[in-house]
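Subgroup meeting minutes
Present: P.N., E.W., G.H.
Scribe: E.W.

1. P.N. recapped why we're keeping a running log of single-chain structure predictions: easier to compare across weeks, and new members can see raw inputs and outputs side by side.
2. G.H. added today's entry (379 aa).
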Amino acid sequence: MRRIDTVPRTDWQARVEELGLVWHTADGKAYWDESACYSFTPAQIATIKSASDELYEMFVAAGQHVLDRELLGDFGIPDFCHNAIHDSWEAEPPALNFGRFDLGYDGKGPPKLFEFNCDTPTSLVEAAVIQWDWKEAVYPQADQYNGIHDALIAKWRDIAPPPGSSALYLAHVADAAGEDSVTTAYLADTARTAGIDTRLIEMKDLGWDSAGRRFVDLDNAAIDAVFHLYPWEWLVNEPSGKDLVESLGTTLWIEPIWKMLWSNKAILAVLWELFPGHPNLLEARRTPLAGDHVRKPLLAREGANVTLVQGGATLAESAGDYGAEGFVYQALYDLPGSGTQRPVIGAWMVDGAPAGMGIREDGPITGNTARFVPHIVEG
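Output recorded in log:
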């Protein structure tokens, strides 16, 4: 695993915009950073894939453990969601079952899990499309661990709604940066490629038909299936949250409500309880650790409200609006690199199988300004 300095393409901004990455620059600094790349050996990629497989199986076991022992209350999940989570876990409704394991990896020791972003994972367009286009232009002779695009299309085809049903709606919030909008549009494109009729809709335009007890669009047409780039913990806390849970029999939500189990960082402590000392896990508990550790809110996003403690003192911390729901404490992992060039591997899963990866660089805490750096596989 080597970091290599590269020369950005002269037209890189126009090229990535053409492919949909409109948020390539923030505050005058490149978010998509092709001034460097990481080179991996096939053996290192095999190690990342193996760890992803292993972690997925452990998440399945941890989810079953939580449900068998009725621990959803410990996750801060509202009571009115518990039966629905149990039911969807058992029924396995159609889903992409996709997500991104965030891993610490130095190319030598075993990859270590930081968390699983599996409800509304982003950095998808850059991982699936942009870095592949870059590789083909700059390193055409090299390989890349990247089958994300094809895996998404294959899974959409597998779960395509039957003829006669309404279109698949894809809902998101119209964010100023355009990341959620473009990510949703990209997923709609992969669904259309799989033969699914799609409609984009903003979350605010989802209507509730109180008489029919179901969700409708702006034309009052019933919504049978909807993909949501909007977290479940926000959905169930909307004014229509209880109605949503009650209507799960008439509206298919992708991803399903059981994803509240895995996207909650309380699952990290459950994993350590079930698999203590596993080489792909960092010690994690709901109570503070004695040694160097990281304190994370159960439901924070983009590195918000994270505190790194080393030698009994605060090494780094980030601001944000999370933490009221509680925290998890995880052993500190010393990321390779230095300064703001500390890479975190985003190992993508689709349909529960390894599909590719992306890399983001930042300082000790990977936040929303972390850069995306492409990778190649050589050897």
